[in-house]
Amino acid sequence: MSERKVINKYYPPNFDPAAIPRRKMPKDAQYKVRLMTPFSMRCETCGEYVYKGKKFNARKEVVEGEMYHAIRIFRFYIRCPRCSAEITFKTDPKNTDYVAEHGAVRNFEPWREERITGEEEKKAKEEEEENNPMKALENRTEDSKREMEILDALDEIRTRNARNERVDADDILDKLTEEDKTVVWSQLSREEEEDEELARSIFHTTDGESVKRLMEDDEPDPIELISSSAAAVSLPAFSAPVQTMKRKDNAFSSLGVLVKKKKPDDQVVASRNAGTSDCPAKAKPVSALAALGSYDSDSDGSE
């Protein structure tokens, strides 16, 4: 088991590496690789969108007859995830990018279009300068002038930032001139006058008199708050309530209502009718409540 971990192998003295047969591969041989799409694209067959970074099992080959400064260009084959149509794209070493070749269209990318447009303008400018020396001189003069303006602007920004770092808020307030203060005070007074005029035009009493503005320290007088029309109204005269005395008989009558009156004895009634003073031998006793009841009835009848 120890011989599996050795670093150096034994080569006999008569070993010839050229004698080892090599496997011959065709130039257009393809290899299976695992990759992610370098850009978002749209399938031309079914219209499916394939976003950037989607993983595929692809086939890779070398493009024959195309090179960029001794750099080989590779082509990749993938299939649409919806319709399985073949899509091919290849590398672009010149722009460090990829180019959609067949089966799909690359989606619009604004930043890419701007870069391509800028490179085309730069290339046209270089060609023009090569053919026209005066144009090249003018372009260099404009470039130098633009650089000087940029440097001046940067110096101004640095100076302003350094000055602002050294100045405090109190120093800025102290730098205000008397004229600026006068302008501020005049503006404040004018605004206050406008507010007063607006208040006078809006607030009025029912009699048409303007309401006086009360100071915060003074308290309003309650008598002054009453209008003349309210003060002229006369209040009715009030007198003490008159109490009437109730008759004493009413108390007895009220008490007699609750007590059942007892009729007098037949013999007593007969003696009264005859005018005699004889009283019955056996007279039933009359209770006090019955007497009160009879007295009440007699008094009422006499009246």
TrEMBL record:
Matching InterPro entries: Saf4/Yju2, Yju2
GO BP annotation list: generation of catalytic spliceosome for first transesterification step
Transmembrane segment boundaries: none
Binding site for Zn(2+): 43, 46, 80, 83
Amino acid composition bias (Basic and acidic residues), ranges on this chain: 116-126
UniProt subcellular location: Nucleus
Region (Disordered): 116-144, 263-283
Quaternary organization: Component of the spliceosome. Present in the activated B complex, the catalytically activated B* complex which catalyzes the branching, the catalytic step 1 C complex catalyzing the exon ligation, and the postcatalytic P complex containing the ligated exons (mRNA) and the excised lariat intron.
Family: Belongs to the CWC16 family. YJU2 subfamily.
Entry protein name: Splicing factor YJU2
Source organism: Jimgerdemannia flammicorona
